[in-house]
Amino acid sequence: MIRFKNVSLKLGNKQLLDQFNLNISKGDKVVFSAPSGSGKTSLLKLVLGFVEADGGKILFNKREVMPENMRFIRSQIGYLSQDIDFPNGRVSEVFQEIFSYTVNKNCHYSTVRLVEKLHEVQLNEEILRKNTSDISGGERQRLGWALILLLDRPVWLLDEPTSALDDKMKQFFIDYTVRSHKTVICVSHDTEWQVPPMKVISRFCP
Amino acid sequence: MNTADISISGLAFGLLLIAPSVLLVWQLRLGFNRQLIISVLRMLVQLGFVGFYLKYIFLLDHVLVNLAYVCLMVLFAAFSGIRNSSLRLKKLWLPTFASMLLPTLFTMLYFNAAIVQLDNVFQADVLIPVAGLMLGNVLKTNIVALKTFFSLARKEEKTYLFLLAAGATRKEAVRPFLKEAIRTGMAPNIATMATVGLVSLPGVMTGQILGGSDPVLAVKYQIMVMIIIFFTSLFSNVLQLLFAVHQGFDRHDKLNRDLLQK
């Protein structure tokens, strides 16, 4: 499903990846737990085409990560960035906007379904009227989860997706992810993620 | 009703007011006397020329000359806009020119043909001043919008990437920035329409009244002028930003940073 082939990446003057190889099959679940600054986030960004590798290549479903294929590749990915960077605006409008994108038209999005998901992630529907800049980190993270649950894409790239959650919620999302059929790459310091069938990769630096 | 002429001695009396100004600036150590004098001289030379050649252009009143003159005005507007924008917009000068020229040309001819209903829609003494009015405004609006757009795109890059990952095309992902940029650019136009006449008499009206027009006619012109200014600015603004979206990003959908640094 996702394949890193001899990938090298240098940011500034730090060699983050050197001839890195990794093969992730469909349904595999991987958690990166290497120390901060070791390039975990960059690995996710490489797959999304936000960062370009200095060498080697990355294959997604046998298609190479390159500008021509990015629309397809991104349409297969549910991505949670570290800060869940929602645009400024009312929560309800932000969701409306995201689901108006051409590739998301087939998601059968409706406010009813959104409210359902909000309840699932233990958010009150009052949050719909709030501005994305006025909500707490924990709420933001749960909203991010609600988004990727609704988008229901086959691959999840998660960057510290439980850092702002209490233990109960954390466990809820970990259980959900572990039981799902998604192909998952998760970057997290939370040791709770290191349970089977998650494969733990704790070092990949040269 | 004719405008009272200003004689040479009258002009001299007017210019005389510069002297106490210079004195006061010097006394208070404001330190801009040099710029003040250069500015006054530039104004005298530039407007002197304008008065001189507009007189001939109006006399000649030839379609091609009139249109060429308007194009030249747009060209100057585009260049001065780019220079004042603190962006490195060299690559954007052609789109800037086009996005200023097209809406201006359209509105100008519409104004002459449908609003004022002139027999000759290319009549120089309407075409040129009206184009000038619109351009001044379009220039301000476009620069504010462009600056807002690029500074947002830079500051909120993470949001842009998050939306790309959520499935947005580049155009869909920049929509929040576009909206904000257009709103910021157009806000003064809307505010001006709402307050016109309360605080001060707007320029067109003042000019016409001084020129001996009936105040009601002056008001009619003023209203039409505000509407065409708004219309042109909005369309020019949107065009300009669409070009910016097209040129401001590379094939990886990333912001073209070399457009921004000066």
From TrEMBL, chain A:
InterPro entries: AAA+_ATPase, ABC_transporter-like_ATP-bd, ABC_transporter-like_CS, P-loop_NTPase
GO molecular function: ATP binding; ATP hydrolysis activity
Domain ABC transporter stretches: 2-205
A Pfam family it matches: ABC_tran
This protein's UniProt keywords: ATP-binding, Nucleotide-binding, Transport
Gene3D superfamilies named in the record: P-loop containing nucleotide triphosphate hydrolases (3.40.50.300)
Family: Belongs to the ABC transporter superfamily.
Cited PANTHER family: OSMOPROTECTANT IMPORT ATP-BINDING PROTEIN OSMV
Protein name per its UniProtKB record: ATP-binding cassette domain-containing protein
TrEMBL record, chain B:
Domain of life: Bacteria
Pfam families from the UniProt entry: UPF0014 (PF03649)
Entry keywords, A to Z: Membrane, Transmembrane, Transmembrane helix
Location of the protein in the cell: Membrane
Membrane topology: Multi-pass membrane protein
GO CC entries: plasma membrane
Protein name as catalogued: ABC transporter permease
Organism the protein comes from: Gaoshiqia sediminis
